[in-house]
Write a structure and sequence with these properties.
Two copies of one chain form a homodimer. With 116 residues, the first copy, chain A, is α+β, with helices and mostly antiparallel strands. In chain A, a hairpin with a 5-residue loop joins strand 2 and strand 3. Chain B binds a DNA duplex (30 and 30 nucleotides) through helix 2, helix 3 and strand 3.
Chain lengths: 116, 116
Amino acid sequence: MADQPLDFLKGTLDLMILKTLSWGPAHGYGIARWIEQCTEDVLQVEEGSLYPALYKLEENGLIVADWGITENNRRAKFYRLTAAGKKQLRTSHDSWSRFARAVTRVLEIAPAAASA
Amino acid sequence: MADQPLDFLKGTLDLMILKTLSWGPAHGYGIARWIEQCTEDVLQVEEGSLYPALYKLEENGLIVADWGITENNRRAKFYRLTAAGKKQLRTSHDSWSRFARAVTRVLEIAPAAASA
DNA sequence: GTATGATACCTAGACAACCTAAGTGAGAGA
DNA sequence: TCTCTCACTTAGGTTGTCTAGGTATCATAC
């Protein structure tokens, strides 16, 4: 039960997707592969998580999709950021930074300070 | 719907609790207040999240509890880390560090590198 | 021409974590 | 005695992710 190294990927998947799309349009499969490659497989993106996440982002108007053809000559849905998506990316990025700083503060503070 | 600034606190709550207890025994209410104070309310610990988390940690043998009296002369359950809990803290701390580094890498990498 | 593997997408159902919202009881101070 | 804070408890709902199945197409090898 959760002896796995990482169970933190909750709420950050959307952020990772938005960020990946900020580099330009990409299709779902490619987004997943890129995130994994970029993090040397520290972050693994399961398809059962990825596609529902994409649909939700689309539903919320943060990304839009067009069918197209990949370099491999395969049919794929290419997503790109909307204006709202770009804005959300900035907001979520900031939130993540604040959150990560807060966690780091708790993890790094010296025991002595606890009595203050 | 998740327009709130922070929805990242998933999986990190256990870690925060273990870390707080590494400074010495503490009761649930105190743990929550300390985390909030330490992060200037960036991390908010709801009681409906806190207590179930404590019970689960206890069930898993990572912490143990004794009833006692607080400085305020109130009845409270004081938790402390077990050996297994200390070990888990180290493991989770490492996992968090790896995870945070991975996310940061994705967020900070330059668009140009995406084509590599 | 037909296996096979990689690419690419889809989705139902289960599960785990968190939150909302309600409650109990006891001490402190007015 | 009333109210506020402290401190703990728990039922029920929501949400996000994962498991595990599936479809279809293209490239390659045989």
